[in-house]
Amino acid sequence: MNADYEMDTDEVLRVRLGVLRQEHRDLDDAIHALETGGRGDQLALRRLKKQKLFLKDQITRIEDKLIPDIIA
């Protein structure tokens, strides 16, 4: 493989999107574990949910960049 290979913007965004989606799933699992654990820390739970929402917003922004608007 060529050592000088550089990823274009779309490729970088797709990789970032994959990482963000995995982090979002991991947070979802952590939130679920706290909620079903019985004595979940409410402050930690709120922070995780806020972080999950932030990740969802980032995912949406990247998806909007990758998928152009089509005017019908």
Pick out its properties:
single chain, about 70 residues, 2 helices, about 0% strand
Can you give a write-up of this model?
The chain has 72 residues and is mainly α. It has one domain. 74% of the residues lie in helices and 0% in strands. It is built from 2 helices and no strands.
Spell out the blueprint of helices and strands.
Blueprint: H1 9-36, H2 42-66
Question: Can you summarize this structure?
Answer:
By secondary structure, this protein is an all-alpha fold. The protein has two helices and no strands. It has one domain (11-63).
Overall mean pLDDT stands at 88
The oligomeric state is single chain
Q: How many β-strand stretches? A: 0
Q: Quick one: overall form?
A: elongated
Secondary-structure-based class equals mainly alpha
